[in-house]
């Protein structure tokens, strides 16, 4: 693993996997940049949630995230 990235394992359940693009796998191994796009701060859970919303959720994102809550 590069020091520029962080490896994260996420698992979806309770029907949230149905919001993902096919195949609707429950488990995902992600490699995220250690620094956010602005280059000033480290990746955190808020960034992870936004990354999932932008890159994995394909429909009804309001069922996954509302404001800053999952």
From TrEMBL:
Q: What is this protein called?
A: Uncharacterized protein
Say which species the protein is native to.
Answer: Violaceomyces palustris
């Amino acid at each position: 693993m590069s020091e520029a990235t962080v490896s994260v394992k996420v698992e979806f359940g309770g029907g949230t996997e149905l919001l993902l693009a096919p195949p609707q796998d429950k488990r995902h191994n992600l490699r995220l940049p250690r620094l956010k796009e602005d280059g000033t701060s480290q990746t955190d859970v808020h960034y992870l949630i936004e990354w999932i919303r932008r890159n994995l959720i394909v429909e009804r994102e309001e069922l996954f995230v509302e404001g800053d809550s999952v």
